[in-house]
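Whiteboard transcription, Tuesday session. T.W. wrote the C-alpha cells on the left side:
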C-alpha cells in the first residue's frame, strides 16, 4: 500500500515538473523540447523487490534529436 502511495506522489510531482518545463520559453522553443527526462524506478514492485519489466518513461525531445511518440 505505501509503495503505491509513494509511486503516485512521485508521478504527480513529475507531471508538475514536466508541465512547468513545457511552459518555460527558451527563445522559440520550450525547455522540455530541449531536454530529456528519465522517469522510472529500479524495481517494478518495491514491496517484493521485483526487478523485471521495470516501467520507465522518457519525456522531452532533446533538441529534436530523438524520435518521439513511440511505445517500445
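and on the right, the sequence the group agreed on:
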Amino acid at each position: 500500500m505505501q509503495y503505491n502511495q509513494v509511486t503516485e506522489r512521485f508521478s504527480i510531482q513529475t507531471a508538475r515538473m514536466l508541465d512547468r518545463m513545457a511552459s518555460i520559453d527558451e527563445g522559440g522553443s520550450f525547455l522540455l523540447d530541449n531536454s530529456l527526462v528519465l522517469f522510472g524506478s529500479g524495481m517494478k514492485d518495491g514491496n517484493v523487490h521485483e526487478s523485471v519489466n521495470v516501467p520507465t518513461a522518457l519525456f522531452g525531445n532533446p533538441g529534436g534529436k530523438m524520435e518521439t511518440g513511440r511505445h517500445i
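Someone added at the bottom: The CA atoms of residues 36 and 60 lie 5 Å apart.
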